[in-house]
Structures are given as C-alpha cells and as structure tokens.
Amino acid sequence: MLRALTVLVISAFTLGACGFQMENYQGETSRDDIENMGMNEKVTTDTQNPRSIKYVGETWGLKQDRELIKKSVEQMPGVNVKRVILEASRVWVTVDIDGEKDMSKAEKEEWKKEIEQTIYQAVPRYDVDVKIR
Asked: What is the pLDDT of residue 42?
C-alpha cells in the first residue's frame, strides 16, 4: 500500500510540474492572439496577405490573363475576340470568325478546338469554353 501511495504522489508531482511550464511552451497563444489573427494593427477588413487579389503585380492577375488570352486568340487569322469572362478556374471566350455563317457544324467545332488549344497554351490553368458568334 505504501508503495502504491508513493508512486501516486511522485506521478502527481511529475505530471503537475509539467503542466506549469506554459510560458516555455512553443505553441502558446493567448485569447487576444486568436481573436486578432490575420488583422492589421488597426481593425480593418483588409489583411496583409501580399497574394491578395488587390495587391497583384504586373506579371499575374485577372487583367493580365484576360489580355494574354485575347492576344493569343487574335493571332489566329480571321478571329476577333468579342468577350472574355474569367471566373475561378473557368474562362468563357466569345469570338467572331470571318465567314462563320458559311461554315458547317463540323468546321465550327474544329475552330473551337483550335481556339481552346491556343488559350490552353497561353494560360493552362483555366478550363476553357469557346462560343462562336
């Protein structure tokens, strides 16, 4: 009985001493840290994330992708881009092709595939839908 009591007392002291080491614990966060996580010094709706869509540079962004799509498609002879709509990982492109009224359905599908391939080569991160008007 004395042996069991001694083990119980020693284990209580050991486990209790480990619980009071919170200031040295690497993962310690206070309630204020959790409530203000991701906020600037003053309370705003903006975060300081440099990859936010508001802080894009000159090399990437929706505007740059739209221009790249338009430029790559308009390099094809007789193709004029009417509209480019970007939404998440999809892009819808409406084009006007010279002589489109005289084309068969198979020719239009072939043009769509060529235009989709051209867009994919320019910006491969989008799923592409092409509409010919």
From this structure: 59
Burial tier of 119 (Cβ tally within 10 Å: 0-12, 13-18, 19+): buried
DSSP annotation of 85:
E
Q: Are 54 and 104 in contact (CB under 8 A)?
A: no
List Cβ neighbours of 66 (8 Å cut-off, separation of 6 or more).
84, 86
Under 8 Å between Cβ of 79 and 115? yes
Domains of the chain: which residue ranges? 77-132
Residue type, 13: F
**Quick one: which H or E segment has residue 51?**
none
Instruction: Give me the pLDDT at residue 89, please.
Output: 86
Q: Is the pTM of this model over 0.70?
A: no
Partners of residue 90 on adjacent β-strands: 87, 127
